[in-house]
Write a structure and sequence with these properties.
Layout lengths: L1 E5 L6 H14 L4 E5 L5 H11 L8 H25 L3 E5 L2 H11 L4 H11 L6 E6 L2 H10 L11 H17 L4 E5 L4 H25 L1
Parallel strand pairs: 1-3, 1-4, 2-3, 4-5
Helix pairs in contact: 1-8, 2-3, 4-5, 4-7
Length: 211
């Protein structure tokens, strides 16, 4: 099973992913934990370019293409091999982040993201957990973590557009998206996520039997 975790800054994705990984491993699942941009040595170098604030401004279209260069490497080198080996893949951000950040936040045409997805993405998550939190609260949390990266230094309006795009995606793909209230405690979020995963796994098992 391929599971992605999405949300704006400071929503608690890292904590939830770590908790879900531990719980699934305790149940005997072979789990691969990865992230975007990143996940491979080359993709991590691209991540550094994208997140660091440099003297030369990274233009929006270049940012989008770098994200998909890293993603293409990540899919071929990590995600698809793990899924072929029947492993559980937990990914911190995937294609929905590009739609939310580069289309919703940066204002690039949706068609640009769609054409990249159509040509360079060979797999989709079966579950996408969207950690939903008011943007102001998330930014306060992010600032407490320390130095902000290039994205985290954007203004509130930028992240509100991203949040609104996530809400649109959750409405557009209800079979895949599972909204989680990020105001809940880490324990409550983990419990809800594991329950949803268990339900999906049960459905997959039933499909195999009937199929």
């Amino acid at each position: 099973m391929f599971i992605s975790f999405e949300g704006t800054e400071g929503v608690g994705k890292s904590t939830l992913i770590a908790n879900v990984q531990h719980a699934l491993q305790q149940k005997g699942h072979d789990v691969v934990l990865t992230r975007e941009p990143g996940g491979t040595p080359l993709a991590e170098k691209i991540r550094q370019i994208v997140l660091e604030k440099n003297q030369e401004q990274l233009v929006n279209k270049a940012e989008l293409l770098l994200m998909y260069a890293a993603r293409a490497q990540h899919i071929e080198q990590v995600i698809l091999p793990a899924l072929q080996q029947q492993k559980m893949v937990l990914c911190d951000r995937f294609i929905d982040a590009s739609m939310a950040y580069q289309h919703g936040g940066r204002g690039l045409p949706k068609s640009l993201v769609d054409v990249l997805n159509d040509n360079f993405v060979d797999c989709l998550p079966e579950i996408t957990f969207w950690l939903d939190l008011p943007v102001e609260v998330g930014m306060q949390r992010a600032k407490k973590r320390g130095e902000l990266d290039r994205f985290e230094q954007e203004d509130i309006d930028f992240f509100q557009k991203i949040h609104d795009c996530y809400a649109m995606l959750a409405e557009q793909f209800p079979q895949r998206f599972c909204r989680l209230d990020a105001n809940l405690s880490p324990e409550q979020l983990t419990e809800q996520a594991l329950k949803h995963i268990a339900e999906k796994l049960a459905l997959k098992s039933a499909d195999k039997i009937t199929g």
